[in-house]
Amino acid sequence: MKGTKLAAILILQAVLVMGVLSHVNADFFPKCCNNCRSFSGVDVCDDAHPQCPKGCSACRVVTPSPHKTFRCADMKSTVDGTCGGPCKKH
């Protein structure tokens, strides 16, 4: 009986996680990212920008003063946990 309850709970949890990941916000994601986080099959780029990136649907203020910077909180699902390469400095 314990094994059946545990299996049912694990299956329901897996279904819940897959449902959440299927609705990942992927309207904007940069081609390169210097500060990337990967967790639970999702990539998030934490690079700060002077303006909210065009196409970003979930922009957050990182530093309000002296110069306001923004971070796009959009995510993309990933299979291998890589965000792509870092941005090249000119």
UniProtKB/TrEMBL annotation:
For this protein, the record's SMART domains field holds: BowB
Give the range the annotation lists for the signal sequence.
Answer: 1-26
Where do transmembrane segments lie in this chain? none
Keyword vocabulary terms for this entry: Signal
Which parts of the sequence belong to the Bowman-Birk serine protease inhibitors family domain? 32-87
Tell me a Gene Ontology molecular-function term this record carries: serine-type endopeptidase inhibitor activity
Q: Which GO terms describe its cellular component?
A: extracellular region
> Signal as a keyword?
yes
Q: State what protein this is by name.
A: Bowman-Birk serine protease inhibitors family domain-containing protein
The organism is Aegilops tauschii subsp. strangulata (Goatgrass)
Q: What is the lineage of its organism?
A: Eukaryota, Viridiplantae, Streptophyta, Embryophyta, Tracheophyta
